[in-house]
Every structure is written in C-alpha cells, then in structure tokens.
Amino acid sequence: MRKLVPLLVLIVVVFATVPWLFRNTTQPPQLARNLPWQIELLPDGTSSVFGIELGHATLDDVREQLGDDMELAVIVFPGETQGGLEMFYSHYTAGLLSGKLIVAADVAPDTLAQMRERAVHAEYMQSSARKFRLHPQDLPLAWQARVKGLTFVPTVDIGEDAARKRFGEPASRVVATPGATHWLYPDKGLDLILNEPGKDVLQYVAPRDFATLTDPLERAATAAGQP
C-alpha cells in the first residue's frame, strides 16, 4: 500500500491544477506551451494556436505533430450540402488541459463531393451528421489540405470569470441558443462559446477569416427574426 501513496498524491495534484490554469487570477510562471489562450498573431493575418499555423500548416503537418491517434473523414451536418474534411482527436492534451480537438481543412466543394462519392464507408453520428471515411486514393490529397480552423472542447468548464482573465473582454457577445453565448474576439480569430447546458467550445480561425465564424451567426439571427 505504501507504494500507492505517491501515485495518489500525483493524481490529486494534477486534477487540482487543471481548473486552476483557467481560474488563477495572477499571471503564473509559464507551466506549459500551446495553451488555449496562447494565440500567436502572424503578420499576414493568420495565427498559430496549439503550435499549428492556421492557413499554412497541412493536415500532414498536424498528424506529424500530434500523432496518428485520430479519425479523418468528411463530415456533413444536417442542412449542409458539402460538409467538410476534418481530423478528430478524441484525447488531446494542451499543456495540462485535456479535451477533444477537431482540425478543419480547406478543401474545394467539388473535391469534397468526389471524396464523398468514393468513400469506403458512410455512417450516421450521434449528432445526426454523416461521416464519410475516405478511399485510400484520396488520402494523399487530404494530407496536403491546409488547416483552416480548430475547435477545442475542454473537459473542464471555462466560465465567464476565467474567460475574461485569460482572453480579455470580447468585442461582442451573441446569444445563439438559450444558455449558449458566443464571446467573439475578431482580433484573435476566436469564438468562445460558453455553454451552460453543455460543454464550452473554443473555435479558432485566422483573424483575417473571422467572418467564416460570424456569418453563420448572423444568418441564424436573421432566420430567427432577431435584429
């Protein structure tokens, strides 16, 4: 039993530290790299998040950096016609923070259509989206596709206080659905979704492409009759 004590102490320390990373009010010494709030802005209007340069890195670059423990597929959500090519890491670690990471690729609509047609398998996901697993002949092209966005879903809630301390005040807020508020940071290329009923979500794009995050919100507001 004595040999188990150090391990139990380590587990307690790690679980106590993860929420602290979001909520600590002071600026601590640098504990880890590639944390969610460490967004590097690049001169050409792009950015680097988690060590991934949006608009420059390819899916193959990300695979080399993060490993092969992921899924690659074309995902089509209800109401979409084309969908998007995505890499999905179900167990991603950013410093001491863990969660799910989705890497979205920039692929032309006609290429996506061809990938769907040649898919070796298609299935429905719990979200009602369809997942198309790529044919081997499409993999070389897929790996060369450039990263256009990242979505990180941390296992711990962020909350408003921690969001302000780590990211600052947003340029604007948009309530998309009851309980889900989008904190918009166009200068960072970040849409931080504080979601009371579910998990908080961080969506990153290059700042120059921020309209790709706000346009869907504006269309949804118009459809709902909001001003």
Describe this structure in words.
With 227 residues, the protein is an alpha+beta fold. It has one domain. The chain is 28% helix and 33% strand. It is built from 6 helices and 13 strands. It has a 10-stranded antiparallel sheet, with helices on both faces. It has a 3-stranded antiparallel sheet with strand order 1-2-3, with no helix packed on it. A hairpin with a 5-residue loop joins β1 (39-41) and β2.
Task: Tell me, briefly, the overall form.
Answer: globular
How are the strands of the largest sheet arranged? 7-8-4-5-6-9-13-12-11-10
Low-confidence stretches: 1-18
Number of domains: 1
The helix/strand series, from N terminus to C terminus, equals HEEEHEEEHEEHEHEEEEH
The end-to-end span amounts to 64 Å
Structural class: alpha+beta
Main sheet makeup: 10 strands, antiparallel
Q: Give the mean pLDDT.
A: 87
The helix content is: 25-40%
CA radius of gyration: 19 Å
Share of β-strand residues = 25-35%
Number of helices: 6
Task: Work out the number of β strands.
Answer: 13
